[in-house]
Write a structure and sequence with these properties.
- 78% of the residues lie in helices and 0% in strands.
- With 279 residues, the chain is an all-alpha fold.
- The longest helix is centred in the N-terminal third of the chain and has 33 residues, at 72-104.
- It is elongated.
Length: 279
């Protein structure tokens, strides 16, 4: 080990945290620069929710609104928070494919050969995902307002809603990293992406769980996305913010609890998998 490498190694708990934070930014910057140079990845992620806004908001919106006994405009107030959460969920695909490509291409091994924090290799990816999610939300919220959606809550409530959406993205980012470390390559990751749709659709996103079959409604109510969507609708002041199920009555608490639990489990398993890859 060279003298310069030894000098870079942390010598205390404080310097270790600073070392990990610095390396986290280095890794995140690498992912963000790649996104800037290849904006088609961001456009591809946004394509599904943007098309959903147009299709479900304007093509099918009146029919869905009639089934829910709400006008088309009010249905869009119901729909947009669900689409924001869907965008957070669909981000799993990009995360899984990118991590799988880094493993396949040996990028992760090269980084691990450097005097870098192992934790930072993963937290850097998470930080890049959160920055990307902020950009996605800004674009979608702007598009929604252009098409007639608006929030009715206070600025503090809106910021809290955005915070819950980012907390959901944080949790799902760890799931994407874990899957990227487990699959055989980016091709396999793309095939498994279809599994995101049941998670995204069997939830209170496009239609309320009360309109689903009884056996499916129970699973949809306990879907982590449902808690976030219901809480965000409530904070935005839109329709559907209150319900009679236990999850609906405790939506904000569940919207915090679910992502924290998923993050704890996902981060633990992802770090364990990263250590096993080096053996």
């Amino acid at each position: 080990m060279s003298t310069s490498t030894l000098e870079r190694l942390p010598r205390s708990r404080v310097s270790e945290l600073g070392w990990a934070a610095s390396d986290t930014w280095v890794v995140a910057r690498r992912h963000l620069l790649r996104l800037v140079r290849r904006p088609d990845e961001l456009l591809g992620t946004l394509l599904i929710p943007v098309m959903a806004v147009v299709m479900f908001g304007f093509v099918f919106g009146d029919a869905f609104g009639a089934a829910m006994a709400v006008p088309g405009g009010e249905y869009r107030d119901f729909l947009l928070p669900g689409l924001f959460a869907l965008t957070m969920a669909f981000g799993i695909g990009n995360t899984t494919i990118a991590v799988a490509a880094d493993v396949r291409g040996g990028v992760l091994d090269r980084m691990r050969s450097l005097p870098m924090s192992n934790v930072a290799l993963l937290t850097g990816r998470v930080l890049a995902d959160l920055v990307t999610a902020v950009v996605e939300l800004v674009i979608l919220m702007t598009l929604g307002m252009v098409l007639g959606w608006q929030w009715h809550g206070s600025l503090a409530a809106v910021l809290a809603a955005v915070g819950l959406l980012l907390l959901l993205r944080l949790a799902l980012s760890w799931v994407g990293i874990l899957l990227g470390l487990l699959v055989s390559g980016p091709e396999a990751a793309m095939k498994y992406f279809a599994l995101v749709f049941p998670l995204a659709m069997v939830a209170d996103t496009i239609v309320p769980t009360s309109l689903m079959p009884g056996w499916l409604a129970g699973a949809a109510e306990w879907n982590p996305l449902s808690a976030t969507v219901i809480a965000v609708r409530h904070l935005f002041g839109g329709p559907g913010g209150a319900g009679t199920s236990w999850v609906s009555e405790h939506a904000v608490a569940m919207a915090v609890g679910w992502p924290l639990a998923i993050t704890a489990v996902g981060a633990f398993l992802a770090l364990a998998r990263l250590r096993r890859l080096g053996r």
